[in-house]
Write a structure and sequence with these properties.
With 482 residues, this protein is of the alpha+beta class. The chain has 17 helices and ten strands. The strands form two sheets. The protein has a seven-stranded mixed beta barrel with strand order 1-2-3-4-5-7-6. The longest helix has 26 residues. GO terms for molecular function: kinase activity.
């Protein structure tokens, strides 16, 4: 039996302390205390973007891996990240058109995916299950994806973490890549807490099909009618999970009570950046894909993904390919897609029918322009990052472009974004038409972008010119001339 003259006070104090701890655990976020999952170990290690990291891929036969890359099959390897080794990691090439074209042009610089739990249950890098290495395909600036995610994060949209990495293979230089957090369990936990919802990466089976499910249109109440969504679930989903998504799509289709089915504020912030960066290889383009769909408690959010063809460089995303920078950089924010596409994109179209949401969408453009572009933040971030990666781009043995072309691309990206910001400011102020029809009727009301060459950001000729360089780097690793 414990005896102490202050035992009653000790017990009372312990009870009070326990109560305070319980309150902190329950209401910590409201009190400004971040969730434990908000800053996982990998966020301050690999994804510290203030420096260029090092990754060495140790693999038995790199030549065979490159030869079979298009199959997208995982192969086991050892990965050394900033000097720390991780064994039995799954490695494969990734991409869609970039993967196909890299193979078609006889090149070897593929974007890569590394999965820590592919061959071992529970495998992870300080809590991270998977990340990718973006090859900057058709992005001579190396900056399009990085800057797009920075804009999304600035606007409070859950976006993948990313940082630059110098990649070697079996100790031999391979090039500068952008490491990107893949949206799976770790991403969901970091952004939404341990009780996160369900995550999907909707994609089409055939670009020529209707793909109504990928466009987030309500079809019927049968899960089999939504293969583009449910066959691309990132986590195991139940019939109840499927029903929640379908019910949300059904509500979205009506255009009423949208806040019961859509995270309206977050979606508006997403579309603000998406429209700014002129990315038509996306939900607002002909393809309708390259996004993640997040559902929690029957409420849908759209999350960003894949920006190497943003900033007006995916002309094929239009029904009639447009390459004129005067059209692209002046593209209207109120009708950011042609009518046929717009009517089939209810997540944008049905929200914009509401005056309050439409006004908030414009308010978010004001915020993006005034707090990110017009105060110099964009230029500072762009130039600081350019300076960080410059020595690595200069020595990149598999680069898709020369260092001189890289510098030209950075300058071009800066000009494109500043002109785009100027144009949208004019649209918001009523000086430039904000619809396709208005611009057709007033063709002279625009910013002059005639000196911009969008091909300077990356073009097919760069692929042709990089083959010799990439063959030499592959030969240095395999010991075979190609």
């Amino acid at each position: 039996m414990v005896k102490h003259k202050y035992i009653d006070w000790i017990c009372i104090g312990a009870a009070v302390l326990a109560a305070l701890l319980t309150i902190l655990l329950m209401f910590g976020e409201q009190l400004g205390i971040p969730k434990a999952s908000a800053t996982p170990g990998y966020a301050t290690r690999l994804f510290d973007d203030s420096r260029v990291h090092t990754i060495d891929i140790q693999i038995a036969d790199w030549g065979a891996f490159i030869e079979d890359a298009e199959r997208e099959e995982y192969e086991a390897c050892t990965v050394e990240i900033d000097g720390e080794e991780f064994h039995n990691i799954g490695l494969r090439a990734k991409g869609n058109n970039s993967l196909r074209l890299t193979k078609e042009y006889g090149l070897s610089r593929y974007s890569l995916k590394l999965e820590f739990d592919q061959f071992q249950d529970g495998g992870n890098y300080y809590g991270l299950d998977k990340f990718s290495l973006d090859a900057s395909f058709q992005d001579n600036s190396y900056l399009k994806t990085y800057m797009a995610y920075d804009m999304m994060a600035f606007m409070g949209v859950p976006a993948p973490l990313c940082s630059y990495t110098w990649v070697t293979v079996n100790g031999e230089d391979w090039g500068l890549f952008l490491a990107v957090e893949e949206p799976e369990e770790a991403f969901a936990r970091r952004n939404f807490g341990n009780d996160y919802g369900k995550l999907y990466k909707p994609d089409y089976r055939s670009l020529n099909a209707e793909n109504a499910d990928v466009a987030l249109r309500y079809i019927d109440d049968h899960p089999d009618s939504y293969p583009g969504i449910f066959e691309n679930a990132k986590f195991k989903v139940s019939e109840a999970d499927q029903k929640q998504v379908i019910e949300a799509l059904k509500t979205l289709s009506t255009g009423e009570n949208l806040e019961t089915a859509v995270n309206v504020d977050e979606v508006l912030r997403y579309f603000t950046v998406q429209v700014f960066v002129m990315n038509w290889d996306s939900y607002l383009g002909h393809t309708g894909h390259n996004y993640f769909l997040y559902e929690e408690n029957g409420v849908l959010s759209i999350l960003p993904w894949d920006y190497n063809l943003a900033f007006g460089t995916y002309a094929l995303g239009m029904t009639d390919p447009i390459k004129d920078p005067n059209i692209l950089i002046n593209y209207p924010i109120n009708t950011p897609a042609e009518g046929k596409v717009m009517l089939n994109r209810p997540l944008y179209h049905n929200l914009m029918k509401h005056d309050a949401y439409f006004a908030r969408y414009h308010d978010y453009f004001h915020k993006l322009l005034s707090e990110y572009f017009e105060n110099g933040r964009f230029e500072a971030t762009l130039r600081q990052t350019e300076k960080l990666i410059a020595p690595y781009v200069q020595k990149d043995p598999t680069a898709f472009c020369s260092y001189e072309d890289h510098r030209l691309a950075v300058d071009t990206l800066e000009q494109v974004c500043l002109l785009r910001a100027e144009n949208i400011r004019g649209q918001l102020d009523g000086e430039i038409p904000a619809t396709i029809r208005g611009q057709q009727e007033n063709p002279d009301d625009k910013v002059d972008a005639s000196e911009i060459q969008l091909t300077d950001l990356g073009d097919f000729k760069d692929l042709e010119e990089s083959k010799e360089r990439q063959d030499a780097a592959l030969g240095d690793i395999t010991g075979k001339s190609t």
